[in-house]
Amino acid sequence: MPAPNAFYAQSGGVTAVINASAAGVIETARKHKAKIGKVYAGRNGIIGALTEDLIDTSKESASAIAALRHTPAGAFGSCRFKLRGLEESRAQYERLVEVFKAHRIGYFFYNGGGDSADTCLKISQLSDSMGYPIVCVHVPKTVDNDLPITDCCPGFGSVAKYVATSMREAGFDVASMAKTSTKVFVLEVMGRHSGWITAACGLAAEKDGDAPHILLFPELTFDEDKFLARVEYSVNNHGYCAVGVSEGVKSKDGKFLADAGLKDAFGHTQLGGVAPVIASLVKNSLNYKNHWAVADYLQRAARHIASATDVKQAYAVGKAAVEFALKGHNAVMPTIVRLSGKPYKWSVGMAQLKDVANKEKMMPRSFITADGFHITSKCRDYLAPLIQGEDFPPFKDGLPRYVVLKNAPVSRKLDTPFQL
Amino acid sequence: MPAPNAFYAQSGGVTAVINASAAGVIETARKHKAKIGKVYAGRNGIIGALTEDLIDTSKESASAIAALRHTPAGAFGSCRFKLRGLEESRAQYERLVEVFKAHRIGYFFYNGGGDSADTCLKISQLSDSMGYPIVCVHVPKTVDNDLPITDCCPGFGSVAKYVATSMREAGFDVASMAKTSTKVFVLEVMGRHSGWITAACGLAAEKDGDAPHILLFPELTFDEDKFLARVEYSVNNHGYCAVGVSEGVKSKDGKFLADAGLKDAFGHTQLGGVAPVIASLVKNSLNYKNHWAVADYLQRAARHIASATDVKQAYAVGKAAVEFALKGHNAVMPTIVRLSGKPYKWSVGMAQLKDVANKEKMMPRSFITADGFHITSKCRDYLAPLIQGEDFPPFKDGLPRYVVLKNAPVSRKLDTPFQL
């Protein structure tokens, strides 16, 4: 009886290092051929399993899989597709187990955030009750850094390094220009519900007066007067003002500032962006010349400035997921455990998925200064190790050399098409 | 009689490598102490000369000056302040010569774009006629890449490398997500009057189907129908569509798309950005989910991903400026001369400022494909060498370590304050 196969899928928004986790899973599985047959990947995440659109990763060379470690985004495709509760979405869960059974899949590795942890747990429960037990291990990934138990989430450290680097560089730029030109610069970053990425911008400032001078967190209600007073103070005292703002900042009425009801000349609604809203406010109220940037996907795809710590951790959780599965652990997730802060030491731990699913780790209020506009030293101590080290990708012709896999399909075994 | 001093100033928008030119000027001057006394820098550019606010660079250590080579933005401050014609602004030109005379400045090195080349030429002419001849050498710098005679402009290659890298990374991200989520991504880049930076985004695409799929150049009028048809084609054929757009793209009526008359909920005018306009158009017309990014200052400050070729050239023109001055060349500018394309070889040449001032080098139409949406192989051959090589700055605590100079003031000699 040949060893059962494994299934691996990427879920939700991709990151600079989710492929490093894929490399960890696949390379580790390849070292245990007696226990794991092939690793199949879902084309476009879990949708690939539902539609029986599987990728045979055994067709990829060792060097291609190794190159995943330095390639951003999701090499097999990801998706935004949430399976609901077992009752609501029973047919989908059953279909998954049916596809897994057809392809002799005994291990399910699901690489994503909170939603995918929940799906992973449910599949382990349902497959058991359906008499085809599958070992399910969740591989943590989210730039939002909001998974519980784990000290940090793979993907976050690299975004943090990118936004802090960008803020420092733009801060130097504005400082040069402020005498006669731009006095205020606004950088919009991701993190609709929690301010971890906004907080990371704060690492650029090493001493009073350094950029950023103001951070606007989604955890706190935007106070226009207090903000404008702070901008004015910064321009008067430091010559300029650099602002890091979360896309999720809300006004007193609970609405996203980014959805401020913009209309273009034709009356069409304009897709938001909070940076231009903040910039316009500064212009209209204080008449300071300003510039704004929206980093958007650039921040989470920026493998060229990834954190070496993050890359190592992303690989390690992929590797540990396979090792946990081989030891018979089911419905678990590898975690990052902080052993010490200075010097930074970490190891991989294990969490039960029932303790992970549907819980969000919010940023503590103690990580934000009393005035609400910057990070505390406690926050800095937490964040600083996560951006340590550089792990530049190989370059060719002046650009990062990223791998595109063959993504060869696995022959279908079922003749029942599945409607999503 | 001690050797005359030199004056160096930075002008206009700063770049990732203008400080490398400063290092080239200062380090070379320090090697010729018999002929050049001290190098004074203008605090905030030419304004520092007009207001007699000079910086004594001799107070900076050799290692601080060396660190300028890897530090972005303008270490002495830049400014947007244009001196007009000799008749109109005669008092300002005379004031400059007066300040230079008071500080025994015999060499004027002005680091900037077209406007500063013109100022540099005028000072050489006026100082001559005022009986205090100053050797004036312009040091080329502009991300816009629009100076004549020189094959390329220091500052451009690093922006080009940044936007091409960012486009490639974001393209990988969108490709991962397109099945169920974002199908169109728009990256806005600088270059209001010419499409050099937009063109550089095109380097990310190595073969048909790679991002970017569409480039929108300021040289061509935006054609909404043709653009939307192309977006649809790209989504249908490649699964997604990545667009690079110049901030300076105009509609048929000659207006910037970025100034599309946006109003916020309070009726205030919103500061533009062309990326959200393009994104909204795609959403409203084709209903594709989309994301957009505005790189703004991030692109020109991104020293962490500077082109090694650009850094070398920026340093070389600073060094050559001093060498030209010492040989008695006046009213000239060092240029980059392309000796061969493959392999890329270049040297430093010399242009007369009368041939440089008030001329812009536009991107040839032959660099844009017939359909107007991409770059030709001719363009690619021109651009490719300029992004070659990496020159990563030193990192500390996970972030690039940039130098902040002491910028010690030179004691004033004149007691006449000058009103700008």
Topology:
Two copies of one chain form a homodimer.
Chain A lengths: L4 E6 L7 H13 L8 E4 L3 H5 L3 E3 L5 H6 L22 H13 L2 E8 L1 H16 L5 E6 L15 H22 L6 E6 L6 H6 L12 E3 L7 H15 L2 E6 L27 H13 L3 E5 L2 H5 L6 H19 L5 E9 L4 E8 H4 L20 H7 L11 E2 L2 E2 L20
Parallel strand pairs in A: 1-2, 1-4, 4-5, 6-8, 6-9, 7-8
Antiparallel strand pairs in A: 2-3, 10-11, 12-13
Helix pairs in contact in A: 1-11, 4-5
Question: Any overview of this molecule?
Answer:
2 copies of one chain form a homodimer. In chain A, 34% of the residues lie in helices and 16% in strands. Chain A contains 13 helices and 13 strands. In chain A, strand 12 and strand 13 (399-400) form a beta hairpin. In chain A, helix 1 packs parallel to helix 11 and helix 4 crosses helix 5. The first copy, chain A, starts with a strand and ends in a 20-residue tail after the last strand. At the A-B interface, helix 6, helix 9, strand 9, helix 10 and strand 13 of A face helix 6, helix 9, strand 9, helix 10 and strand 13 of B.
DSSP E strands of chain A, number: 13
Q: Main β-sheet of chain A: number of strands, strand sense, barrel status?
A: 5 strands, mixed
Q: Span from first to last CA of chain A?
A: 33 Å
Low-confidence stretches of chain A: none
Q: Could you state the order of secondary-structure elements of chain A as H and E? A: EHEHEHHEHEHEHEHEHEHHEEHHEE
Largest interface (C-beta under 8 Å): A-B, 86 and 86 residues
Provide the gyration radius of chain A in Å: 23 Å
> What is the helix fraction of residues of chain A, given as a range?
25-40%
Assembly type of the chains comes to homodimer
| Widest beta sheet: strand line-up of chain A | 3-2-1-4-5
Helical stretch count of chain A?
Answer: 13
The backbone outline of chain A, from C-alpha atoms, is elongated
Strand content range of chain A? 15-25%
Query: Which structural category fits the helices and strands of chain A?
Result: alpha/beta
